[in-house]
Amino acid sequence: MPIIKKVIDKLIKKNISISVAESCTGGLIANTITKYSGVSKIFSYGIISYSNKAKCKYLCVSKSNLSKFGAVSKEVAEDMINGLYKNEKTKICISTTGIAGPHGGTKLKPIGLVYIGIKVNKSNYIFKKIYKGKRLEIQRKTRDFIFSKINQLI
């Protein structure tokens, strides 16, 4: 996890605040961030919004987007980072929504499909990834992609 440590150190050094809204990663991103000393200066909070009800209540996810596109969609990933930003105004907001398996996949939305939202300085970036592997592997690959992408964006 050298890239993660590098990113955390960079965030602390530059005093860049961060918050996360996780669904399919179930708190892995927040857990990873809080493993490092000094992050209380930059890590605001993390929410695990696993249910659609929680996504709407705490992140202002559009019920229309949920019914039209489903929870696992670029629209919901974007709603999640926008809701997170509305609540906290951190410089970086991260969202994850996907199907980590081992069940729940369909032909259109297979196991391993993840949408990742990253808001950096009010600019939104949405990524669609399809990962192979078991549940924890998919979650870890999602986390690693996020830290790699943040490293490029800051």
CATH architecture designation: Alpha-Beta Complex
Question: Could you describe the largest sheet, including whether it forms a barrel?
Answer: 5 strands, mixed
How would you describe the shape?
Answer: globular
Strand content: 15-25%
Fourth-level CATH superfamily? CinA-like
Number of strands: 5
| Structural class assignment | alpha/beta
When the domains are counted, the total is 1
Q: What is CATH's topology name?
A: Maf protein
The level-1 CATH class? Alpha Beta
Query: Poorly predicted ranges (pLDDT <50, ≥5 residues)?
Result: none
Topology, element by element:
Elements: H1 2-14, E1 18-22, H2 28-33, E2 43-48, H3 52-59, H4 63-69, H5 74-88, E3 92-98, E4 113-120, E5 123-130, H6 135-153
Parallel strand pairs: 1-2, 1-3
Antiparallel strand pairs: 3-4, 4-5
Task: Explain how this protein is built.
- With 154 residues, the chain is an alpha/beta fold.
- It has a single domain (2-146), classed as Maf protein, CATH 3.90.950.20.
- It contains 6 helices and 5 strands; from the N terminus they run H-E-H-E-H-H-H-E-E-E-H.
- It has a 5-stranded mixed beta sheet, with helices on both faces.
- The longest helix has 19 residues, at 135-153.
- It is globular.
- The mean pLDDT is 97.
